[in-house]
Amino acid sequence: MLKSSPNPSSRNPGRTRGRILRAAITLFSDHGFHAVSVDQIVKKARVNKRMVYHYFGSKDALFEAALVEVYQRIEGIEFEAMERGACPRAKLASLLESYFDFLDAQPEFTRLLQWENLEKGRHLTKANHLLTKNPFLEKFRETVQAGVATGTFRPDLDVPHLMIHFIGLCFIYHSNRFSLSQSLNLDLGDARVKAVGCRQVLGLVFDGIVRPPQSQSSRPPRPRT
Q1: Does 22 score more than 50 pLDDT?
Q2: Residue-wise over 34-64: b if at least 16 C-beta within 10 A, else e?
Q3: Tens digits of per-residue pLDDT, 91-147?
Q4: Residue 32 lies in a domain
Q5: Structural contact between residues 83 and 75, judged by C-beta atoms closer than 8 angstroms
Q6: Co-location of 74 and 169 in the same domain
Q7: Domain tally for the chain?
Q8: Would the pLDDT of 62 be above 90?
C-alpha cells in the first residue's frame, strides 16, 4: 500500500507563507482591510485556513506583514538608486527616477498605503519597528550634506522635509492618477506623460535645492537636520 504524500504546505513552509502573503497583498490593496476576509485570502492562496493563523496569527498581523513587505521593496530600490550616482546630485536624480519606476511597477504599494492612511495608520503603528525610514534617511542625509559641503546644494535644506517632497512629488502621479487624469484631461497612465512629469519634477527639485552660483564662494554651513 502506497503511503499518502505529505501536505505540500508541510514540505515547503516558506513557499506557503509567501503564497498567503502575496494573496493578501493583492486582495488588501484592491479592497482594503475591512472588505477582505481570511476565507477570501485562503481561497486565493489555495492553502488550508489554519496556515494563515499558523504563520501570521491574525488578519491584523497579516495586514501588517503585507505593509512590511511592500515597504521592504521600496527600501531596496532606494539604496540601490543612491549607489548608482557618482555625485550627490546624480544620486538624488537617480532616486527620483527610481521612485517613478517603482510606483509604476508596484501599484500595490500605493494602494496599500492609501488604505492604511484611511485607517489613520493603526497597522503602521504596530509594525513601526519594522517600517522606520531612519536607515535610508541617514543615507539621504549623508548625500545632502555631501552636496552642501561641495557647494552644490543650499545649506538651509531641512532633510526630513526634503525626503517628504521627493516621495510626494512622485507619489501623487500614482495615488491621484485617475482624478487628475479626469480633471486635467491628461492620461497619467501613459508612459510618455509620466516621463514628462518625471523630467519636470527633476527640474523643480534641483532648481530648488541647488546653491545659486553667486553664493558658492563662501563655505556653506551644514544642513538642518
Answers
A1: yes
A2: eebebeebbebbebeeebbeebbeebebbbb
A3: 999 999 999 999 999 999 999 999 988 888 777 776 555 555 668 889 999 999 999
A4: yes
A5: no
A6: yes
A7: 2
A8: yes
CATH of the domain at 29: 1.10.10.60
Q: Identify whether residues 89 and 197 lie together within a single domain.
A: yes
Domain that holds residue 25: 11-57
- The answer as to whether 20 is a domain residue is yes
38-45: long-range contacts at Cβ-Cβ below 8 A with a sequence spacing of 24 or more?
A: 38/62, 45/19, 45/20
Shared domain check, 84 and 32: no
Asked if 150 and 196 sit in the same domain, the reply is yes
Are 110 and 68 in the same domain?
yes
- What is the spatial distance between Cα 88 and Cα 29, in angstroms, rounded to a whole number? 35
Residues 164-212: tens digit of each pLDDT: 999 999 999 999 999 999 999 999 999 999 999 999 999 999 999 998 8
Average pLDDT, the chain: 87
